[in-house]
């Protein structure tokens, strides 16, 4: 029964992800965010790199350590949201090492609306906002710090996997999220054991 629920949830999220992007409302109804989880949205504004937040350390699929870059995004209407721009290797943590990836001026961003993430485990250290040390994605605290709405849009990866190193990492550009639903589904493992 739980397996069926999980499979149906994944199918629902994949269906949402396959829909065309919609404009994100000026004021996001926080009680409705879960209903739009994994929905593609489009927003126009400018990145506030001076308020950048680093989430990590986190590894990519190849085990390389690095950080997710979360940047407040000031919209044309004056409201702010958070944009999870992507992952950078540990040696690109400092902005001065990835100047090419600091997009300036007005841009339109398309990504997945997300309601956050659960803390991975009790072994994950507590966040230290005063030092910009974020080990878990705490949207409420991050939004408070940057005067943004507590929602995050995850930028999508539009570069083929075999070109990520050459097109993004080597050019100091954060690696966005793969356009797939990522939920842990251990039910097959449980059946075997």
Automatic annotation (TrEMBL):
Pfam families: SURF1 (PF02104). GO terms for biological process: mitochondrial respiratory chain complex IV assembly. It is a multi-pass membrane protein. Belongs to the SURF1 family. The gene is SHY1. Probably involved in the biogenesis of the COX complex. It comes from the Eukaryota. It is found in: Membrane; Mitochondrion inner membrane. GO terms for cellular component: mitochondrial inner membrane. Keywords: Membrane, Mitochondrion, Mitochondrion inner membrane, Transmembrane, Transmembrane helix. This is SURF1-like protein. Its main location: membrane. Transmembrane segments: none annotated. CDD domains: SURF1 (cd06662). It comes from Lunasporangiospora selenospora.
